[in-house]
Amino acid sequence: MMAISEFANRYRLQVKRDPEDGTSVIPGRKGKSHLFEHDHGVLGVLVMPEAGTAHWWNAARVAFLRAGMEITQDCDGEGAATFDPENPEQVRLVLKYADVKRRRRASEAERRRLTRIGFKKVIRAVPLVSQIDFANTVEGEKAA
After folding, report:
1. C-beta pairs of 57-61 under 8 Å, 24+ apart in sequence
2. Which of 76, 97, 118 is a domain's end point?
3. Which of 13, 108, 121, 135 has its CA at a distance of 20 to 30 angstroms from the CA of residue 47?
4. CATH classification at residue 12
């Protein structure tokens, strides 16, 4: 059971308000693709690429089914599925096919360089390896 805001914090994603209905979504860069809260603790992904790219949804649908996700909407070239936010394989696929951009983290060297040239905004440091909770990384991703 995880809310969209908690999921966004865990994976360094940006939450925005959908202008059509005012719900919280995590926008993707593939057309109008986005992640949303489907039900209590169940998250969903809408894969809606630009017109003429039906192969993107077809590939996503096959990958989602192989990972055990439930397809809730299957249309011509677009669709939606629900996923378990605790399953790293499903999270990896969702972020890939919705093309969600993750927020970058500044390294300690980058923070020092920016401070030296007069950058005033406070940038959080990357945690030390001993401080990282490896359970919150996406499968196949290097921890900070």
Report:
1. 59/97, 60/93, 60/97
2. 97
3. 135
4. 3.90.1150
Is 49 found in the same domain as 19? yes
Sequence-distant (≥ 6) Cβ neighbours of residue 70 within 8 angstroms: 81, 82
As beta bridge partners, residue 47 has 79
Query: What residues make up the domain containing 118?
Result: 104-144
How many residues in total does the chain contain? 144
Structure tokens at 40: 């209590």
8-39 pLDDT, tens per residue?
A: 888 889 899 888 888 899 999 888 888 898 87
Distance CA(25)–CA(65), nearest Å, equals: 23
- Starting at the earlier edge strand, list the strands of the sheet with 24-27: 16-17, 24-27, 34-39, 42-47, 79-83, 70-74
